[in-house]
Design brief:
single chain; TIM Barrel; nine-stranded mixed β-sheet; alpha/beta
Length: 365
């Protein structure tokens, strides 16, 4: 890794992409190639694609076998050997909510367009790992035209989320064409773009890219920091370039066992995000996706963490804890309840400190 970092091309995002670790041989030369035997890791790579940028690898503390960066990006034999009840390749039934290939229309007023299957880093907890690297027909321009046509005919859609894969891995001219096509629909008011590039390849967020994105405001970016160690000077600078271009940045974090499943880690992450002007938006319970079961926590863990944040840190540092329900049920928020009872002319609350407080609810108010 030191030889990589000494390269004069380290800050060149194209060099980073060309020099990603993608093979079992390259993986085996790392200081810690991940848990499991070479044969076991080969079985994982036969089923699930693998790629990680030199930049993201450089964040790993190789002396720590439980390093939170390493767990997110290096393959683990449990991806193919460990399975919890209810896990499926597509538990959210995304494929069943596609009126045209690649366009998910689950909520009435918004639709999600998957425009690529490529990522800079293939995160091991990804809820779309079933489609990693596949050459889906919907990742072509003809399919984007079909998505646009559907949205033009569906006037209730006011927001389009551009996702994948990672849209910021695409050629900027192609991405700009997609942005322009969706924004040309009269009833589309807002574009949202989901990307992990600021976290895993921050040098990709160039001034030229930000300038192109700024031409298509109102544009919102949702990124994906999971651990405070990912908030490096480079990542913060990438977010700052987006913000200075007038593009708000929010964060969608996933609660991951052994990585960030403590109140202290989530609280520090959210405070750090706020300090770099990135809004902590969602804390997701890890989906029941096959190949990610070893990352899943008990649902109560996220509720406990969320409860601990209230009264401990400011509201702008508290994300919404949500679970994506199976069978396409959509997002369900899970907030700690402070209301114990409401009866007659008063409500009874328990505060974040555990005190019981009575609140008047007079009739006729």
């Amino acid at each position: 890794m030191q030889a990589f970092q000494n390269s004069g091309n380290w800050k060149d995002w194209k060099w980073q992409i060309r020099n990603r670790i993608t093979s079992l041989d390259a993986l085996s030369r790392l200081p810690n190639p991940g848990p499991g035997t070479r044969e076991g890791l080969a079985n994982v790579l036969r089923r699930y694609r693998y790629a990680v940028t030199p930049y993201y690898l450089s964040l790993i503390d190789w002396t720590d076998p439980a390093d939170p960066i390493m767990k997110q990006c290096l393959p683990d034999t449990r991806e193919v050997t460990f399975r919890l009840p209810g896990s499926e390749d597509d538990p959210l039934k995304e494929n069943e909510h596609m009126p045209v290939p690649g366009l998910i229309h689950r909520y009435r007023d918004r639709a999600l367009a998957m425009v690529t299957t490529t990522c800079a880093v293939y995160c091991r907890h990804c809820n779309r790992k079933r489609q990693w690297g596949l050459r889906h027909a919907w990742a072509h321009s003809r399919s984007v035209a079909r998505m646009v046509d559907y949205i033009q005919k569906t006037s209730c859609i006011r927001e389009v989320i551009i996702s994948g894969g990672d849209p910021l891995t695409m050629h900027p001219d192609k991405l700009e064409g997609i942005l322009a096509a969706f924004q040309a629909v009269p009833h589309v008011e807002v574009i949202r773009l989901g990307t992990r590039i600021p976290v895993v390849l921050p040098m990709r967020v160039t001034d030229d890219l930000c300038g192109m994105l700024a031409r298509h405001r109102p544009l919102w970016i949702n990124t994906h920091f999971n651990h405070p160690r990912e908030i490096t000077a480079e990542a913060a600078a990438a977010c700052d370039r987006l913000l200075r271009a007038g593009i708000p940045v929010s964060n969608q974090c996933v609660l991951l066992k052994g990585i960030n499943d403590s109140a202290e880690t989530i609280c520090y992450l959210c405070r750090r995000l706020q300090s770099i002007m990135v809004r902590p938006y969602y804390l997701f319970h890890c989906d029941s996706v096959r190949g990610t079961d070893h990352f899943r926590t008990d649902l109560r863990k996220g509720i406990e963490i969320t409860r601990s944040l209230w009264g401990t840190t400011g509201g702008l540092s508290i994300p919404n804890f949500v679970v994506d329900l199976p069978e396409g049920g959509g997002k369900a928020p899970l907030m700690p309840s402070y209301l114990l009872d409401i009866d007659g002319e008063e409500a009874i609350f328990r505060t974040f400190e555990g005190k019981i407080v009575r609140y008047p609810c007079p009739e006729g108010a």
